[in-house]
Structure formats: structure tokens, C-alpha cells
Amino acid sequence: MTKHFGFIGIGNLGLPLAANLLKAGFSLTVHDLNRNAAASLLTAGAKWAASPKEVAEASESVFTCLPSPQAVTAVVSGANGVLAGLRPGGTWIDMSTNDLHEIKRLAALAAEKGIATLESPVTGGVHKAASGEITVLVGGDQTVYEAHLPAFKAMGGKVFYMGALGGASVIKVITNMLAFIHLVAAGEALMLAKRGGIDLAQAFEAIKASSGNSFVHETESQVILNGSYNIGFTMDLACKDLHFAHELGREFGVPLELAGLVEQTFIRARSQYGGSAWSSQVVKLLEDALGADLRAPGFPEVLTAENVSSAGREI
């Protein structure tokens, strides 16, 4: 079993995932564009490397958790990248939400060097990553998957093996697509309740206990009602993932009419509020259009594992 891991990408999601590997007793070498992002990991015993190549040279397997396919490609296949440092017999594991074809292309490059590839995107929200309860979706060779299962279990509460490489990328895009559709629907439902004169805190609880409940309502409706919108996931990332869904629909011949409408709504929200705005601010389009906010007393200002009773959403 691999015990010496590398981890590249210490962001909102990467930080808790890497921390859980350390807590489970694995040796960890880390890298990020911002060394300060890894401060808590270094205090907890992780080692710092100055480049992706140096991470790979110190590791048996390397995780990447990055915001875009372009970032993954640069970190993995660049001159100073992961594939330049990993030894034959090593494994590269991508936890990013990546393009189906790009991960397969990079996996082929890795195979030429005797390096295995797994994909392991996660879903469930940053707070679930922090508590070690996030869901891990894994694709790739089953023997390689089983060899790394202890690490996946250290990071996630549920681990699903999705078959050959590419399967995890497809199901991750599907889960994200559904989450964004549910988010827009939740905003419309809450506004309808407000216009109907219903107390929004009571409306939240009634929906939660109804057949109209969703994973997203239980979490993102809270950050809408408390006004923080802070779900740890940006408009840029949402638009990227909805574009992936659109591309898969076209490739597989599946008309995604509802997802297409939601994608356009997010593009409009990004134009209005900026790419770095939280994705849940898509609901502000409706608030601003009607001149009515969706605030309700009694909801915590920060979404954490402790104050959310159920699961969170994708990252």
C-alpha cells in the first residue's frame, strides 16, 4: 500500500482532503502556488516541495486537486510537472473536475512512462471534506484503485468505484449539473414562498420535510437565507462544469434542455456578479429583479459540518 503521497492544489477543497491524509498517518509532500495555503499542513507534519516535479520525486503517488483542465495539464505534463518526477510504477490521481478527453490524454502520456492514472473527483461540499465525509468517485484500473482504497477512505465517507477511466468524470459532471439545477429551483421556490406571505424559515423546514426536498436545499438554501451565499464554490467553476455537461450532452446525443437554460442563467449571473462570486449568488438575479431579498433569521452565517444537519454540495 502506498504510504508516501504527494498533494498539489491546497485550495478550499484540497486543504481538508490533504489534512485527512495526514490524520490517517500517511506521509505527505505538498505544493501550491501559494505556500501560505499549506501552512497548517506543514505544521501538522507535511513536507513542502518547490514544484510539482519535486512533489512527484518524493512520492509514490501524487494527488492533484486543481480548478481547471488547463491547470491540471500544466501541473501534470509540464517540463517541471508530475510526470517528469514520478518513477515508473507510480500513480497520478486527479481529484479535479476534469474534461473527460483531457484526463484520458494525460493518462496515455503517463502510461508511456510506466505511471498509472486514477481519477477521483469528490462531491458533497467543503464542510464534508473537512469532516472526512465527502463522497469520492473513482475511475481507472481496479487493481490500482484497490491499492489506494485506504487513502480514499481516509478522505471520504463513501467511495464509489465507477469503472474504467472516464466514468468518474462523467458522473461528477452529472452530479454537478443536477446540483446547479436544484439551486436555481430552490431560489425560485423560496421567492414564491416569500411572495405568498410565508415565513421563510418555516418554508425552509417545510420543504426540507417534503417530497420537494433536495441535497442542495438543505445546504445552499441556508446560505441564501442567511445572506452569506458562502458555499466555497465560484461562478467560474459552476460555468465550467455546466459547459462540461453541455459538451457531454452533445457528444452522447442527449438533449439537456433544462441544463441548457440553467447554464445560461449562470452565465448571466457571472456577468452580473463576477466569476469569483459564490455560485449560490445565482439566486440574486431573482432577488434583484424583484427587489426582494430572501433573508430569514436563525440561520448560521458560516456553513460547517457542525451546523449543517445533512450533506452539502459539490466542489
In a nutshell, what does this entry contain?
By secondary structure, this protein is of the alpha/beta class.
Structural description of this entry:
The protein is α/β, with parallel strands linked by helices. The chain has two domains: 4-165, NAD(P)-binding Rossmann-like Domain (Rossmann fold); 169-290, N-(1-d-carboxylethyl)-l-norvaline Dehydrogenase, domain 2 (Orthogonal Bundle). Helix content is 50%, strand content 12%. The chain contains 14 helices and nine strands. It has helices at residues 14-23, 39-43, 52-57, 69-77, 82-85, 100-112, 126-130, 142-155, 167-195, 200-208, 215-225, 235-252, 257-273, 284-290, and strands at 4-8, 27-31, 47-48, 61-64, 91-94, 116-119, 122-123, 134-140, 156-161. Strands 1, 2, 3, 4, 5, 6, 7, 8 and 9 form a nine-stranded mixed β-sheet that branches. Helix 9 crosses helix 12.
**What's the assembly state of these chains?**
single chain
Q: What is the top-level CATH class of the largest domain?
A: Alpha Beta
Average pLDDT, to the nearest integer?
Answer: 92
Q: Provide the helix percentage.
A: 40-55%
Uncertain segments are 302-315
Primary descriptors:
315 residues, alpha/beta, Rossmann fold, N-(1-d-carboxylethyl)-l-norvaline Dehydrogenase, domain 2, 2 domains, 9-stranded mixed β-sheet, globular, disordered C terminus
